[in-house]
Amino acid sequence: MAQNLIDFNQGVNNIAVWHAAAIGLIALEFNDATLLNTALNGDKGISTLLNKGITKDYIWYEGAFSYNNYVVAAMVPLFKFASIKGKSAILKTPMLMAQNMLLSPPQFQFDNGYLPTVGDTRGQIKAIDTGALHGAVRVLPTVTGVAEANRVRNWDSLLDPLKNNSTAPAPAPLLTSKVFESSRVAILKNLPGRHLCTMGS
């Protein structure tokens, strides 16, 4: 199965991240150090894909903000299983990059707290996705994610509750006109609204 994923996995795209993460899970389950190195550091590995696919603004390059959380969701099971296996240290850099991906969208938000609907985005997306932060909270903890985990009642919170965090969430970034060169986007602030100007694909 792992070899099929390796053979099929081509290019830098969100699906490739899912494949690399799956290969990593297989490697961890069977304690295959060579396969794990391929999954993390190979030409189609997690580290390679993240270094090529994430802009300096920590946005996935494929052109829609929804891909950020989708790519992170691909890696969360790998991060969790690595933690269970006592191997999370080898994933420290990808985990930090993934956490930054979760936290980066608010810098692009409009005054109403929603993101621009660029690329193949379907519908409005909130800049702060509490569901995504909650889903990753065990391995990519954030103040908002912990608060959401304590609010939601499910088997996860019942069997292994997270400690309450008394830290208040930081305020959202100040809404100003900005140019995000690496993401090829400019945000223009013009009271009372905010307008998006894309600079190219």
Q: Could you give me the name of the CATH homologous superfamily?
A: Chondroitin AC/alginate lyase
The helix/strand class is mainly alpha
- Numbering strands along the chain, what is their spatial order in the largest sheet? 1-2-3
What's the architecture in CATH terms? Alpha/alpha barrel
Count of distinct structural domains: 1
Beta-strand content bin: 5-15%
CATH class descriptor name: Mainly Alpha
Mean pLDDT: 87
Helix and strand string, N-terminal first?
HHHHHHHHHEEE
Percent of residues in helices comes to: 40-55%
Number of strands: 3
> Could you name the CATH topology?
Glycosyltransferase
Task: Please render the helix and strand layout as text.
Elements: H1 2-8, H2 14-29, H3 33-41, H4 46-53, H5 66-84, H6 92-103, H7 130-135, H8 143-151, H9 155-159, E1 178-180, E2 185-190, E3 193-198
Antiparallel strand pairs: 1-2, 2-3
Helix pairs in contact: 1-2, 2-3, 2-5, 5-6
Question: How would you sum up this structure, described in words?
Answer:
This protein has 201 residues and is mainly alpha-helical. The protein has one domain (2-128, 172-198): Chondroitin AC/alginate lyase (Glycosyltransferase), CATH 1.50.10. It has helices spanning 2-8, 14-29, 33-41, 46-53, 66-84, 92-103, 130-135, 143-151, 155-159, and strands spanning 178-180, 185-190, 193-198. It has a 3-stranded antiparallel beta sheet with strand order 1-2-3, with no helix packed on it. Helix 2 packs antiparallel against helix 3. The two termini are 35 Å apart. The model has no long low-confidence stretch (mean pLDDT 87).
